[in-house]
Design brief:
Elements lengths: L1 H24 L22 E5 L2 H4 L7 H5 L23 H16 L3 E5 L2 H4 L8 H16 L3 E7 L5 H5 L9 H15 L5 E6 L1 H10 L10 H23 L8 E8 L2 E3 L5 H24 L1 E6 L2 E6 L9 E6 L3 E3 L28 H12 L5 E5 L10 H17 L4 E7 L18 E3 L6 E3 L4 H21 L1
Parallel strand pairs: 1-2, 1-12, 2-3, 3-4, 4-5, 5-9, 6-10, 9-11, 11-12
Antiparallel strand pairs: 7-8, 13-14
Helix pairs in contact: 4-6, 8-10, 9-10, 9-11, 12-13
Amino acid sequence: MSWLLLSFGTALAIIAGVLLTLHLRFPELRWDWSSIDTGDVEFPANFVWGTATAAHQVEGDMPANNWTWWEDQTDKHGRPRIHGGARSGKAVEHFSRYAEDIQRMRDELGVDSYRFSVAWSRIEPEEGRFDQHALDHYSQVIDTLLEAGITPMVTLHHFTHPLWFEQKGSFEHQENLKHFVRFSKEVFSQYSDRVPRWCTHNEPGPFAVMGWGLGAFPPGVRSPSRMVPVLANLMRSHDQVTRSLKAMPNGNSVEIGLVKNIFQFDPWRRWNPLHWGLARVLEEVYNDSILGYLKTGEFRVRVPGLRYAETISSGPAPGDFVGLNYYSHLMVTPFTSTEPPFETFARPGDIKVDMPYCIYPEGFYRALKQIGEVGKPIYITENGLPDDRDDRRAHWIQTYAYAMSRAMAEGVDVRGYHYWSLLDNFEWAEGWDPRFGLFGVDYETQERSLRKGARAFVDLVSKTRDKRYETQTTLT
């Protein structure tokens, strides 16, 4: 009996030691906000302030793509794939209203940059046939931005692609990557003389995990063994596209990068080894695999029951910057729902938003430190919240700006920040309920109005512009 007690005690001591090591190595950072002045932020005069959208979410009347197809599907219970049976439809008519929206960006926000995506299904509605009208449209958007003094930042793939590409299996098959490379080269040849910053893929993690892991995005697959090769192919695709574009005219004069979304996975109960185990597995698949590729050129996943390793680039991944999309962290348990609606876990004092996560600016700081290890300049390509009441937006902007300023003061090379989103929009599987826009949109009339909570963002932009003006005045 004493031997059993001794063995049990030894096992407990080992578990306690492991938990202590994990707790110290992966702390869930929390600041005392009562002692912090969120107005104490500093950004350089050349810091880029912008906002962002994605074509499918805002343009309207989208030609057949993987999401127009998905909007007509139902799950195994016969429920619509999109919350409330919503469809993107006319969206917020940004395709036809882009000029007035750009004017609002200039006059009411004062931003320097606009990150938007080009719709592959518009430009190449049939395999190998490029639509000149669509190409001309985006050319006009770019010219209108430049005339307004706003720098365009183009995303080549933001979750959507033509239905013909989806029917080929899209990024699940390596042989399909040539189609995306061809499309990217065509777009680059049209606009590279006027667009200085390019994003290859938006959020490979959510695209693969939601589409092939959880089945909540098209194509609706729930298979980790199929999901991981999709992630690898997205890294391979970024590699091929970046090298191809760099070899083209203007390739050496533009910046190209991959956009990485970071959601930290923290254990809901930090004393529970099962919670820690799940958190570390998710962190490995969702974050470490992609960041590892960016740093070393090797894409690797090593979790129980799943092993994948491949050298894609000889050395760090190609590219001039890395884009960071950050919203919050996710606290997980082995009993976390893997089907919508997803749960929100919150610590005492946490402020929830209108989707299943909380305001967590400390996580933004953590993500900046983490992605800073890639060793490339960083652009924040998305950061914002769904806030229909508009009673948390200003707080979000002020606290997340503080976290970013603090990381920059400690040496993280952040060059710019794009708020998500310019406009209320179609929020993928969540439909029309989440309200992310700096400008609220009346979906019946399409009227836009700047939200009061957006003033905090405008103030940040204005403060930097004043500093820029002072610097220019001093130099002259």
